[in-house]
Amino acid sequence: MLRRWLAVCVMAGLPFLSFLPVVTWAVLSPLEVIRSGVNQAIAVLQDPAYQGTDRRQQRIAKVREVVLPLFDTREIAKRALGVYWRERTEEEQEQFVALFTELVEKTYSGTLDRYTANVEFYYDEERIEGNFADVATRIFDPAQQKTFSVVYKLHRVGDRWLIYDIVAENVSMVRNYRNQFNRILNKSSYEDLVQTIQNKIKELSVAPAPS
Amino acid sequence: MYVFVKLIAVVLVTAVLGLRFDASLVSAQLGAEEDTTPPPADPLAPFNEKMFWFNLKLDDYLVRPVASGYAKIFPIGARRGVDRFFDNVGVVPRFANNLLQFRLVGAARELSRFLVNTTLGGVGFFDVADSWLGLKPSPADFGQTLWKYGVPSGPYLVLPFFGPSTIRDAVGLAADGAMHPLNYMDVLSTVEWLAIRSGAQVMYAINYRSMNLELFEDVDRYAVDLYGAVQDAYFQRRERELRATE
Questions:
Q1: Cβ A171–B211 below 8 Å, yes or no?
Q2: How far is A186 from chain B (nearest CA, A)?
Q3: CA nearest A175: which of B153, B164, B236, B218?
Q4: Between chains, do A144 and B211 touch, taking CB under 8 Å as contact?
Q5: pTM for this predicted structure
Q6: Which residues of B215-241 are buried (b: 16+ CB within 10 A; e: fewer)?
Q7: pLDDT tens for residues B167-207?
Q8: What is the CA radius of gyration of chain A?
């Protein structure tokens, strides 16, 4: 198929044949996606232009800009809602993706901000099966004298690998949220879940994590 | 002991009734995580929720304040040492359960680790068995053993003081506790035995809590539904521990 397409290109004398190697080269492996994402985030956190508590907001905004494109936010929100996802209208699904993304951002921006130069990252291995991949990493925190395992779960969307779950110390973030959400949904309503999440976002905005 | 017998009775009744609450273990195939699995059944929720809040309050008013004060006095290295000491003392159930699960290499490893760390590792404060000889721990508990023999987990159960568990793991906890070396010291009176056992347990808990001050607070702040977050984290970790024995 590819060969025939190349042949057609050559015959047509089309110049974009030269794009081909560039395009294939540009597809980062799952492990490279994670490594470069973490490195970029660390670069921002260590950037002298973003130091100090008064620049906390800009720092977090910049990290967000670097990190957010690595995540498949819709897939994460869908998996977090589980069986209840299909019961929502498309509009509600869109709203939920935005709401849940904001929750996760607010939740982890504080944690992320705590990671400074001291933390060491180790990239152990990647495992790819079809359109899914696991990237196993470890984080060593000298302050706690402890190593944490973090596995990133990615899937291929088009020509990119996007994160759809993070498993920290054997606990999948998505599954953990799903259990919390399902408990609320089993007891009350979707509207109530949205309200609860909104309240949590407000709470996290008022009292950000101590850095 | 009475509690132990009662718990066994509950497990047997649960098993006989064929009530299987076992969450299916995560598939090893990538991307195959069930995203539609409903949360595990929680028939004991009314009891569990009360116990959960009891444990939270216990932590708020007693354990955390003591643990954070303790953390200010002893450096993290010393606290890790204390944790390893307690870990070393708890060899008997790990050794026995490795045997019961026919993990002979694991049993041998636990025994060697105990002998090396008790002598060369300063009664277990240092894990030289791992750092010098590369002898990794082979954790095993009676809850796992029951799982290996096909005993269903029974419903989720929040224990006072000990936290999240299942009926099966609570039985395991009691059985492992019964294997503690202190139980074989006939010279101790019941009062002495009780004082030492509970003292050691409290010491262990405070020390453990002091090493996880931030972690606990993070979970508390971030969870939308704290009970659900803790319940699921317990199940996920436990599934991993069970699978690790295979």
A1: no
A2: 10
A3: B236
A4: yes
A5: 0.81
A6: eeebbebbbbbbbbbbbbbbbbebbeb
A7: 999 999 999 988 877 777 777 788 888 888 889 889 999 99
A8: 20
Q: B92-99: list long-range contacts, CB under 8 Å, 24+ apart.
A: B92/B179, B92/B180, B92/B181, B93/B140, B93/B141, B93/B142, B93/B175, B93/B176, B93/B179, B93/B180, B94/B137, B94/B138, B94/B139, B94/B140, B94/B141, B96/B179, B97/B140, B97/B141, B97/B142, B97/B144, B97/B145, B97/B176, B98/B138, B98/B140
How far apart are the C-alpha atoms of B240 and A160, rounded to whole Å?
30
Contacts of B79 in chain A (CB under 8 A): none
Q: Which amino acid is at A115?
A: Y
What does the alpha-carbon distance between residue A69 and residue B239 come to, in Å, rounded to a whole number? Answer: 32
Q: Is B186 exposed, middle or buried (0-12, 13-18, 19+ CB in 10 A)?
A: exposed
The two tokens of residue B60 are 């708020």
State whether the Cα torsion A100-A84-A74-A32 is positive or negative: positive
Strands (E) located in chain B: 156-159, 163-166
What is the bridge-based pairing of β-strands A160-168 and A146-157? antiparallel
List pLDDT tens digits, range A21-55.
444 445 789 999 999 998 998 888 888 888 887 88
CB atoms B30 and A129 under 8 Å: yes
Q: What is the CA radius of gyration of chain B?
A: 19
Mutation target to probe the B interface, by most B beta carbons within 10 A, among A83, A166, A167, A183 is A183
A202 Cβ under 8 Å from any chain B Cβ: no
